[in-house]
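Progress narrative, Year 2. Work on Putative TrmH family tRNA/rRNA methyltransferase from Corynebacterium oculi advanced from sequence curation to structure prediction during this period.
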Amino acid sequence: MPGNDKRRGALRKTNKKGATKGSGGQRRRGLRGKGPTPKAEDRVYHAAHQRKLERERRNSGRHTKNKDTVELVVGRNPVVECLRAKVPATGLLVAIGTGHDDRLSEAVAIANARGISVVEVQRQELDNLTGNTLHQGIGLQIPPYEYTTVHDLIGGIAETGKPGMVVILDNITDPRNLGAVIRSTAAFGGHGVIIPERRSASVTAVTWRTSAGTAARLPVARATNLNRTIEEFKRSGYQIVGLEAGGQHTLDTYDGGTDPVVIVIGSEGKGLSRLVRENCDVLMSIPMEPWVESLNASVAAGAVLSEFARQRRVAG
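Result:
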């Protein structure tokens, strides 16, 4: 009988198992449309998709330099310093294949303990994000700093019931100086720091690191106009003390540190702006050896804040 003959070539071959009636809808499904064809750049296997990713990486690298977006602290020592200082961070990037050492291990351990995501990325991607290859295989993402307003700063100090002590910086463009001033202000019981919106250092990743994390607890405000800001403090009962060589007072003779006070500090080179200087109630200098021309802004701030803090301790 055909199909039962065991001779070679006489067997009927079939892959059917069980009931085979009908197609089970396979033909109907096969006739259905699959929708529009995805764009070439959306197909992961297409070269256009790789070009799209490369554009996004380049754009991300440019964005890290924008003051209003996430910044990246790179280098093993700087990253560890920021993590130790509890600087707010959103992610720790580690290049794949990076050699481990104690600093990298510590950075990963601190990040894990603080709940900061640790993400492995291609070294080329980290190169693109930083714009160079000097990152040592590690980068820490820092979110934008949230500034307060001058009005909120004055109101917050008033709620404490204590005489306020605030620092205003004029013509300070070095973020390390800003970070050091923030740290000194916090250390000596100050209530806040104010910087201009334009032509001034802002709170960047470098500032965070220099402030040793105190920027997370001390308010920093941005002012559109320093002279209007000074007038607002005057109306709130503050004495405005500007630091300038040759002022009518010195740090040894001025005893108004116990009152609500604003300390205005200019840059080491330019000093105070003319209008800001004219708007100060008192111009005060810091006594020092005659052969030393001037002090760095952060050092000057530390000296004055320390003396005013001493006066407040003595006054009880």
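The chain is about 35% helix and 15% strand. The CA atoms of residues 234 and 240 lie 7 Å apart.
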